[in-house]
Amino acid sequence: MCRLIFETVKWEDGAPCLLPWHQRRVEAAMDLHGAEGSAVPDLASVLSACPGPEGRGIYKCHITYDTQGKARRPVFEPYRPRLVKRLACVEIPRLDYSCKWEDRTELQAAGLGLGEDEEVLILRHGLVTDTRYSNVVFGDGSSWVTPETFLLPGTKRAFLLACGAIEELSIKAEDIKFRFCSLINAMLDPGDVVVRTEDVFL
Predict the structure, then answer these.
(1) Fewest C-beta in 10 Å: which of 29, 70, 121, 122?
(2) CA separation for the pair 142, 158 (Å, rounded)
(3) What is residue 65's three-state secondary structure?
(4) 3-class DSSP state for residue 71?
């Protein structure tokens, strides 16, 4: 069955950010889920054929491709980070989101009933993983750690680990004693969206 996968690339001031890291994830996804003999989509070529907005500004670039290796035209939209003030821990031991599937039904269902400024912090067997749309880092604002039990291998997470800007740690829900939890993804850096740990509810 042909399934859809996507990448969200930050387009800043007329250029893509961390594109080699996104390409590596596409290659890993196709290696695991691609149909036999399918070509691996080349994100640089996709963006060269359909470039994004020029000039200053930050845009969210959504690139969808399928397990046959066919990429669709990228979609660009101005980006504004979502305001998150509270995190609710939810235990979902069987949730698997190791690939950025376009169908996020199960993932989105985890947050039903939450307010606009609330988000889910997903636990597996008591261990902290991710929110529905980001990896997370914990810290005091100057140094950060990230759970080693992540759901999705995020590009920003991988980049920050490679740079030595964050480090991995096994984090149980009851061990959240840091000052802050920050959401990170292709669009967000540590410190952009921060929730105080007293506003993380078990």
Answers:
(1) 70
(2) 19
(3) strand
(4) strand
Residue with tokens 């140094």: 143
Q: What is the DSSP string of 159-197?
A: HHHHHTSEEEE--BGGG--SSEEEEEETTEEEEEEEEEG
Instruction: Inform me whether the pLDDT recorded for 142 exceeds 80.
Output: no
Which residues, 6+ apart, have CB-to-CB distance to 179 below 8 Å? 139, 140, 141, 196, 197
Q: Are 37 and 44 a contacting pair, CB within 8 Å?
A: no
User: Going by DSSP bridges, is the β-strand pair 58-66/15-16 parallel, antiparallel, or unpaired?
Assistant: unpaired
46, containing H or E segment: helix 43-49
| pTM: predicted TM-score of the whole model, two decimal places | 0.94
Lookup: tokens for 178: 């840091």
